[in-house]
Amino acid sequence: MLSTPTRQDWLFSVRTFAAAMLALYIALALDLPRPSWAMGTVYIVSHPLIGATRSKAVYRVFGTLLGAAAAVAAVPPLADAPALLSLVVALWSGTLLYLSMLDPTPRHYLFLLPAYTMPLIALPAVFAPQGVFDTALARSEEIILGIVCASVVAALAWPTRVAAALGPRMDAWLRDAAAWAAESLAPSAEPRPASSRHKLAADLRAFDQLITHLSYDAARHDADAAARELRARMSMLPPLLSSLTDLRAALRRQPAGLPPRLEVLMADIAEWQATPLDDPHFAGRGRQLLQRLEQAPPAGDWSGLLEGTLRARLRSLVRLWQDCLSLRQLVMHKQPLRGWKPAYTRWEVADRSRHHDFGLTLFTAGSVALGVFLGCLGWIGSGWTDGGNAVILGTVACCLFASLDEPAPQMRTLFVVNLACTLLAGVLLFAVLPAVHEFETLALCLAAPFLLAGLLFGQPRFGMAATLLVVFTSNLIGLQQTYSADFESFLNSNLAGAAGILLALMWTLATRPFGKELALRRLTRANWNDLARNAAGHQLGDYARLTAKMLDRLALLAPRLAAAGQPGDPFRELRVGFSALDLQRDEHRLHGEARQTVDAALQAVSGHYRACAAAGASQATPAPLMDALDAAIAGTARAAGLAAQEARHALVELRVALFPDADGRAPAAADAGARS
Q: In terms of Cα–Cα distance, which of 395, 336, 400, 403 is closest to 370?
């Protein structure tokens, strides 16, 4: 729904329009060939946050120069070989698009911009290759001018720091996490829908973008390091809360139920989480909770094992929450990370390891490259001079939305917006601008549509359409020092652009008809393959990287499961992965029977997920796997030492995750069953 614009929305719209008019004025004064490109570029790079504007600007400058240099290098030697030039343009666009899709940070502009800037400069020069350097220089000057104006005005006029926007987002996320914790710990808490839990995982990727922008904020004072550490610890909360929910449910199913003393303790933890960090009793109550959690639970039966594991995970929750709130204070007060000591040390999490679907990314980039190649051949073969606009806009459309699971709906929006812009530009160009003779009057004529579009930038549903509306309209009216408009040329050029977007849409529908389902299947299968390899011990050594990769895949998988309406629980499989890594780490410190039974259990887990990956569908968890887990629990129960205790907790958590509805057995009974 369209929400009422806020004061910040108005300030951003006015600031961006002022930067666009400054860029247009300078471009007209310098007599650049296409001043409207400078104006449109301002809207492309502008963002309500100054750090985001700077990060986009830096990479767009270098990306533009790289694309322009590639066009200058390719066109002159290949001007007499149009088919070969078409192949070079297509391979360039496909390769750079592939690289951009592997990097979800603002750095991807360094590859995305050249992917369509090179054909944007090279294709119009096919019939006049001697002018390609002048064209490349002019486009670079116009684009860089727009970037500089956007950055300067953003820094001087009502700048909004990234940290100011990061704080409310962090607080909202932590409130949602605290609500989930209260639901898991306190029986009286109001239950929340599963979609809110999926959103917690998906929002972590949005934090990555804000934290990356934070490094370009001049007022950060090394707060980005604390923000990255905070994001890493926030990412550990969803799987931990999922584990607590299942452990509590398993303990409640036991004949004795949940021990009253533990139920009171869990309610106290939920209440403590609602306490702000600056409360004078926050730290003291946290220490008291940890001391109460250290009390030894009854041992020797399945209930005791569940309670021991639940207490261990509650200790992790308390320590994680302490870290999250203390790191939030460092971020909000722009303090460095030096001297900060973590309370939670169970897992080290790297924040740079990501899941990449190289096969699907290569297919997407390859289909775009093939489409560009065929489009170039068709245009050159037709001899239609303005047909180059069709290839250019088709390339832009394919590149902009290539990373989406379903790019076709956005391309349809692009086509509709292009038609609307053509009508708006026609009215401005042929009915309004002939009466304009001064720059001030021109700015007034553009103010109403551009300011209204700027208000929509902050609306998630309309932001992309508003950006396209402004950029397309700026380019279509083609402002010059002197008024010059030819209806036939205007119509021919715009028909070509609309045809290019329509052809790109048709090509996308033909080459990518599978939508979200394929991405979901491939993510799920990649998850199963990693679980099988991790359990088998084939990917050991860098636990921080493996943990970060699993968490990143969770952020990709959770929203897709929610959108598809599938009942899968990505948190449960993530917990299986954590438990398997935990056991791999502890196994080397075990000896004799404990080590042998743990290894057998891990191999059984690996075999189950290999079977899932091979079948391409979730398989029923086999009974021998439960027997292997029970035997391992019995083996570690008879072993002494911290490693055996930690391995036992991981095994209990693994059993609850894989067999949530099955009753457990006491260690002695499990041992007897394993020997029989």
A: 395
* Phi, psi of 458, rounded to the nearest 5 degrees: -85, 0
C-alpha dist (Å) from residue 561 to 61, 183, 193, 230, 516:
38, 22, 14, 26, 10
CA distance 390 to 376: 9
From the number of C-beta atoms within 10 Å of its C-beta (0-12, 13-18, 19+), residue 660 rates as middle
**What are the tens digits of pLDDT across the range 639-659?**
888 888 889 999 999 999 999
* Every domain of the chain and the residues it spans: 7-160+354-511, 162-216+236-332, 515-675
| Among 239, 249, 137, residue whose Cα is nearest residue 197 | 239
Give pLDDT tens digits for 397-453. 999 999 888 899 989 998 998 898 888 888 888 888 888 888 888 889 888 888 988
Helix (H) / strand (E) element for 208: namely helix 194-214
User: What number of other Cβ atoms are within 10 A of residue 312's Cβ?
Assistant: 19
Q: Are 561 and 636 in contact (CB under 8 A)?
A: no
Radius of gyration, CA atoms only, the chain? 29
Between the two ends of the chain, the Cα-to-Cα distance in Å is 64
Asked if 379 and 358 touch (Cβ cutoff 8 Å), the reply is: no
SS3 47: coil
Say which amino acid occupies 31.
D
CA dist 513 → 154, 374, 506, 600 (Å): 41, 19, 10, 43
Angle, helices 667-675/623-637, rounded to nearest 10 degrees: 120
Q: At which residue do the structure tokens 């698009």 appear?
A: 97
Residue type, position 496, single letter: A
Q: Residue 378 and residue 504: Cα distance in Å, rounded?
A: 13
From CA 224, how far away is CA 211, in angstroms rounded? 6
Q: What angle do CA 436, 440, 443 make, to 5 degrees?
A: 80
CA distance 328 to 336: 12
Q: How far is CA 671 from CA 369, 384, 473, 623, 630, in A?
A: 60, 81, 75, 16, 7
Own/partner pairs, 548-551, CB within 8 angstroms, 24+ separation: 548/232, 548/235, 548/349, 548/350, 548/351, 548/352, 548/353, 548/354, 549/353, 549/354, 549/355, 550/574, 550/577, 550/578, 551/204, 551/235, 551/236, 551/239, 551/349
What's the pTM value of the predicted model, to 2 decimals?
Answer: 0.84
> pLDDT (tens digit, 9 = 90+) per residue, 169-207?
888 888 888 888 888 887 655 555 555 667 777 777 777
Contacts of 136 (CB under 8 A, 6+ apart): 68, 69, 71, 72, 121
User: How many CA atoms does the CB half-sphere of 555 hold within 13 Å?
Assistant: 25
Burial 57-74 (b: 16+ CB within 10 A, else e): bbbbbebbbbbbbbbbeb
What 3 state SS string does 301-332 have?
CHHHHHHHHHHHHHHHHHHHHHHHHHHHHHHH
* Residue 103, Cβ density class (10 Å: 0-12 exposed, 13-18 middle, ≥19 buried): middle
d(CA 208, CA 354): 11
- Each residue of 71-115: pLDDT tens digit? 999 999 998 888 899 999 999 999 999 999 998 877 888 999 999
What does the DSSP 8-state code read for residue 621?
P
Kindly provide the residue ranges of all beta strands, DSSP E only, lying in 80-233, ordered along the sequence.
none
Give the span between the Cα atoms of 509 and 126, in whole angstroms: 29
Do 149 and 60 touch, CB atoms closer than 8 A? no
